[in-house]
Structure prediction request, 131 residues.
Amino acid sequence: MQIDWEEFDEGAARKKGECVHVTLSRKRTFFLNQKAIEALGDPDAVVLLYDRRRSIVGMRRSSVDAPNAFRLKRKEQKRNFPGRVVYAANFCRRYGIDPSETLAFTDAHVDKDGVLVLSLHEVKPFPQRRA
Prediction:
């Protein structure tokens, strides 16, 4: 019998807190886990960037006093949760970003210039927990 093996190329699953993890909800809210916050230098605010040609969102640390700053806020229900959210409906409207479901960025990383890079071409549906 001939078996047509396919090698699984993703390797073992990583624990949730080990890597940068960012999602974008249908309500146009970005969620950044603690690793993403740390990779940005633990800021209180970010500015949002967009590359129209490549459909890439960027986040760069910012002073909360900057006129275009978005505060990194705690999730409303979980005050001691280490992740943060960015309410970005106006940003998403401006650039036509309208997800029909929550998306996880599969290659979220901070580049050499300190920008969190989020490609809208590198996403997958993020499973929602059932209550």
User: Anything to note?
Assistant: The longest strand covers residues 45-51. The chain has one domain: 19-125. Residues 19-125 form one domain. The first helix runs from residue 34 to 39.
